[in-house]
Amino acid sequence: MKFLVWFPIFLIFQEFQSISSNGETVQILHHWIFGDSIIKQNIPDSIAHDVKNRKLFIAIPRVFESNTMTLAEINDGSARSANFIPFSGKPTKPFISVYQVVVDECDRLWVLDAGSAYKGRYEKRNAAIIAFDLKTKKDYPEISRYEIPKEYVKEPHYFAKMAVDVVNPTEGCDKTFIYIANHLECAMIVYNHKDKTSRRITHRSFQPKRQTEITRASLKYTSGLYSITLGQRDANGDRIAYYIPGSGTELFAINTKKIKNKEAFVPTRIGDRELPEDSPLRNKNLWALSYSTGLNDAITMAYDPLTKVLFVGEPNNRRIACWKTEGEFTDENKDAIYSNNDIYLFKDMSVDAHGTLWSLVYVLEPQEWYKLSPKVIPRIQIWKADTSIAIGGTKCDAGESMYY
């Protein structure tokens, strides 16, 4: 899955603005529009929020020769126009092309560097998993670096979501595992931070089920394992790892104990997010501008431990769907918290330590951007939503649904 048609953009900050008629469900924090800027052609791919330092970290893979930075940060409390700020941390080696960022419970920023740029004259080296200490507020020193063996990554430009599993934060941070998806190779890289070892896993459930087509757009792609998110910890520090292929609607899960102990990879098929052909909801106008095509393919999702809800960004349905994981994977426990007809693609989602859902959203088809007034419709947005408020009145909160 590649996004290679882009245009110059610049960052505009605006005060929190609700974009849902359901109270204050979803708010715009930042948006990008056309214009000449010092961040020309820096296209965000992943975001992570640090609640203590009130910063958003943004991964920007180098897909253009003109990329000026590959890891940026933004102060989330600024009330004035703001451009990307180059990452203020101190890596021991220059970044090549950053694809993923995650902030964990131990105040560490984990960075996935592909080790090679899609375009541009940059040094080539192994992909690397790098950690920075966010407790040191001034310079964020690098505290860990692990290079992934070359034989595990044939296509580093197709890294997808990364999940960080701190087994028991109250007992220390060394025992950490990281799970990384590669959607072209249909593989998962598992990194054991304590032992400084890694391995590569493949499974038939990682395979794409079909070619995905974003309706009303010319984007077509075929992607395997794309998004991984972690559920609640049990008494032993084990969790359920939920995952989805980018082209397909099946949701799978496996206990991280099996992954960490190198047991046979035998996942559970939770269910299919696709609506059956005879479903009355398949072509129903669900709410306001939202409608369902029946093609619920998605490339990003996030689990919230406070509400025990799994959120999924569904571009064809132009909505954020939700599932109350304490219940069965049925319509009685699934709903949507927000919909908007301008949604083109949900690129990334994450939930921070305070229960805020952050979404990186591409608005409208990139090929159509030049036809529209940049002063009217932003092109790329960062959204935020309080998860406990967002699920209010939906089946994910066991209340009466406003959608179904």
UniProtKB/TrEMBL annotation:
Residues 1-21 form the signal peptide. Belongs to the major royal jelly protein family. InterPro entries: 6-blade_b-propeller_TolB-like (IPR011042), MRJP/yellow-related (IPR017996). One of its GO terms (cellular component) is extracellular region. It is found in: Secreted. The keyword Amino-acid biosynthesis does not apply. Keywords: Secreted, Signal. This is Salivary yellow-related protein.
